[in-house]
Design a protein that fits this description.
The protein is an alpha/beta fold and 365 residues long. It is built from 10 helices and 17 strands. The longest helix is centred in the N-terminal third of the chain and has 22 residues.
């Protein structure tokens, strides 16, 4: 294991934003288990929550508040050793009308703690939950032109069922590969734009504050217990899981050949703990993924088989505007910097997820 990951982080005070949510609550559990003093800050967004969840440990201090409120940070940040910033509005959203909510929760929700850290001269470690959506399309190779970056897919092609992005130079078919942290970024929806801006805010802050160690973890497709169910902001694994729970087969868009990296939430929580406990410098951004890509259809089949009710996935064509075709990650840098390797494989993870409880959909208000 590299030197950066050898430190123990038990017994310190860590603020976990979004700690009532999907990934955040698992991070809270892991930190409490190793003896940290944990403060959860969460606004219980009505789009994802129907009141306080039952899984928050008694050992954690709970603060129901908006992370975009600087006054909250002026009260909580003094004495904190680290911030694990999971709070965000996630998913593609419903339409562009979501833009101000995304900017408030994601951009301002990151600017506020950084502003207060600046005011206080705070030093510590700041770990940000980012996302693979900042890449846009993943890595591709053209047989004639080498590594290329295809632009957004054309609606005409999508309507005609031509889902693979062509080479932007010659129009020929491409071979998808693994995207590294050094790849160009190309956010293609409001959520992606806000996640990239969060990263940029943190990077700008860290350059001016050498006493703060900062890293953004670019999560790939996280799944597992406590995922939100039946909301426009849920991930595809949750959508498929909800369909099966209601006796419906998963409906797979396009031809099912979209490649993603599905990483179990327990592995993502462990990556956060490693990042918080690193004793040396770490890169500014790290991919957090399983390192074992799968197609959406393969994931849907694994989940349906584990569910065991004979509901085979249905490939229905169609598309979601703003989705990319393939994006899968190289995890080499996270292994080198943190000693991180995912431990839960797709078959094992989906077998457990098929019976795992989801977070109930909030009642309409």
């Amino acid at each position: 294991m590299p030197a950066a990951a050898t430190g123990q982080y038990g017994g310190v005070r860590v603020i976990v934003t979004g700690g009532a949510g999907f990934v955040g609550s698992h991070v809270v559990d892991a930190l409490v288990a190793q003896g940290d003093e944990v403060v959860v800050v969460d606004n219980l967004d009505a789009a994802a929550h129907d009141g306080p969840p039952p899984w928050l440990p008694d050992a954690a201090e709970i603060v129901w508040a908006d992370v975009a409120d600087a006054a909250v940070w002026r009260r909580l940040l003094p004495g904190a050793d680290a911030v694990c910033h999971q709070a965000a509005k996630v998913g593609l959203g419903v339409d562009f009308a979501d833009v101000t909510a995304y900017v408030h929760q994601n951009d301002l929700g990151t600017a506020a703690p950084l502003l207060v850290a600046h005011e206080l001269g705070w030093t510590g470690r700041f770990v940000l939950a980012s996302s693979m959506v900042v890449y846009g399309e993943g890595a591709y190779t053209c047989g004639r032109h080498g590594n290329v970056r295809p632009g957004p897919r054309d609606v005409t092609d999508l309507e005609a069922g031509r889902f693979e992005p062509p080479c932007p130079v010659c129009g020929q078919s491409l071979r998808p590969g693994l995207v590294a942290e050094s790849a160009p970024v190309d956010p293609r929806n409001v959520y992606a734009a806000t996640k990239l801006h969060q990263e940029h805010l943190l990077t700008a802050f860290a350059r001016e504050h050498p006493g703060v160690s900062a890293v953004a973890l670019r999560y790939h497709n996280v799944y597992g217990p406590r995922m939100p169910a039946d909301t426009p902001y849920a991930g595809v694994a949750s959508i498929f899981r909800s369909a099966l729970a209601h006796g419906r087969p998963p409906r797979v868009f396009e031809d099912g050949g979209q490649r993603r990296d599905f990483v179990h939430v327990s592995d993502v929580a462990r990556a956060n703990v490693l990042a918080l406990g690193a004793t040396g410098p770490v890169p500014a951004v790290l991919n957090i993924a399983s390192g074992r890509p799968a197609t959406l259809l393969e994931m849907a089949v694994a989940l349906a088989d584990a569910h065991g009710e004979g509901l085979a996935p249905e490939v229905v064509g169609g598309y979601r505007l703003g989705d990319v075709r393939h994006v899968t990650a190289s995890t080499a840098l996270a292994r080198e910097a943190l000693g991180f390797d995912a431990q839960v494989g797709l078959a094992e993870g989906m077998a457990a997820f098929a019976a795992a409880p989801l977070r109930p959909a909030p009642r309409r208000r």
